[in-house]
Amino acid sequence: MNWQIITICVGIVAWALISQRLSKTLLTLPMLFVGFGYLLGEAGAGLLDIRVDSKLLHIFAEFTLVLVLFSDAASVRLSSLRRHAATPARMLLVGMPLTIALGTAVVHWLLPEVPLVLALLVAAILTPTDAALAQPILASLKVPEHVREGINVESGLNDGLAAPVIMMSAILAAQATGTYINDAPESLFQFVALQLIVGPLIGGGIGYILARLLDRCIINGYVSPPSRGIAVLAGALLCFTAAEQLGGNGFLAAFVGGLTLGNTLTSERDFIVEFVEGEGQILTILTFIIFGAILLPIGLSHISWQTILLALSFLTAVRMLPIWLSLIGTGMPTAHKLALGWFGPRGLASILFVLVVDEQFNLPGFEQLISVVVLTVLMSIVLHGASAQPIANWLGRRSNSR
């Protein structure tokens, strides 16, 4: 185990030392650490054996996902959306349900032996987007603001909106396949109601109280700058644990808690982003290493023409058509609609959701569907990572020529 830790740490240090240089190339952090995990894992050189206790992996996935949901939501400033609120609102309220519905239909069509609820589960897992793979778009001032805002806000909010759909469809899939679930709900209707009501209430309450306490303590000089990030981490875990304890959806609670904190905190909130980009990035790196070492070999071992076609479909038609339909009537240029549809990269949230569902529900035949998720995320990491900068430049030239 010590040699495994040494190997991972050496890889992270090597990346950190040349990270500025790498930022000027098409090589992204996800590309590097997925490849690092795969090459060192059992499918590669066999130098990295990270077969861990499933419970430990489940805890890691939950912990990371809670922090991602909380911090993504906290970074969305609702007051700044007034000028361009229509774009992300359409993408979330119209495009997202259409994406899940179309994705479910495509999975069921290409894999007719898969129960409909399992097809729904895979579509829901692959709906959340990851703005980290589109950083050149978000960072370029040449790209129109409504495009940058649409991509950023959608990726910040769709993780939390997808969470209850994923957990609900996982329970239905377990019932449909006769899979035993620990602490299975007696009444699905009551369970759904508690998940959708208790989670947001707990998260909103904790987020609001934490914001007020942080404001008061920052004003009075009681809290040190490093401790603010620790408070965010503890607050995210508090939202999740309290909601789960009371029968609510912990992921939804973490999402609403972060959204509430980020939009009721009156003090400077840059510490949230700084904490996530520092301590939080270590978790992101470890997630991509786990993806490369554990999930990628599973996905590649169950590869078929159906899984390849499904992965391509989720990155193109299943994503782009619903987004296009959701933006009809906005008067937006075709190039902008295409950019918003294309930049729906799948990354961290999809990886973590599939880890949580696989460990918690252990659904029969899920390996083939894991392959769909793995191939989609892998293609997304490569295609979106490589195309982000060229498309940002292209959008900038088009905007300057108008």
TrEMBL record:
Keywords: Antiport, Cell membrane, Ion transport, Membrane, Transmembrane, Transmembrane helix, Transport. It comes from the Bacteria. It is a multi-pass membrane protein. Residues 13-394 form the Cation/H+ exchanger transmembrane domain. The keyword Nucleotide-binding does not apply. This is Cation:proton antiporter. Pfam families: Na_H_Exchanger.
